[in-house]
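Pilot study result, target chain (264 residues):
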Amino acid sequence: MTDKKKKYNIGLVLSGGGARGFAHVGAFRALKEAGIFPDVISGVSAGAIAGALIADGHSPEEIMGMFKETKTYKYIEFIIPKKGLVKMTGLAKILSGNLKARTFEDLSIPLFIASTDLTNGKVDYFSEGELLNRVIASSTVPVLFQPLRMDEKTYVDGGVMNNFPTEPLENKCNLLIGVHVNPLGYVEDFTSMLSIAERSFHLCFSMNLGKKATKCDIFIEPPELKDYKLMDVSKIKDIFQLGYKETKKALKENKELIALYAKK
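Predicted structure:
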């Protein structure tokens, strides 16, 4: 039986992970096919992007269609390095052109977005007010992307302090599902400065993950994603399929639990 005291029936937590975030869209497709629809979403970085589009009412197919132009330069604008190497102008244009909602209140599903307040050295969770800039703020990987100035504060990627934001949903959902797209795995060779930096980010992002994963009733982490890089946008279809496949597997392993919450 479900616990009627909980605020939400099904909650969904989506991690950051760059291009690996397209696995979230694959996971959403598998959940949808199983009759599982989140009543609330908490996301960060790539998970904030996917979460906003899901909460805005877009199907997995529609979301993938928005990003069919799979060239990295389509999403960014190179700038003279000062605070970051690139701006996320292309991504902002895609989101602005496809998000029907302009505020959190306009979304069809409640959404929490984590972003790192660089000014005060803490994580902020947004759930109301203007939407687009807060999604972008949550996704600005430091050094690589130019930080976003908002509300008299400087914001960078929420994953710096919390790359798996379970906190807004803990003890509020009958069923909490988490999708994490940054498996560490084993890496032997580091062929560039970027590969070293990316691995270092992953190690930082993984801190406290084990404890956070236990907060989820179902925790999904496609192991093959370790072979995909932060900016592997040319491989989003493969990444989508990995998220879909691993979620189907997790749902099968938890079919009795799922039966309590899935819509018939």
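One observation from the pilot: Residues 189 and 195 are 9 Å apart (CA to CA). A full batch analysis is planned for the follow-on phase.
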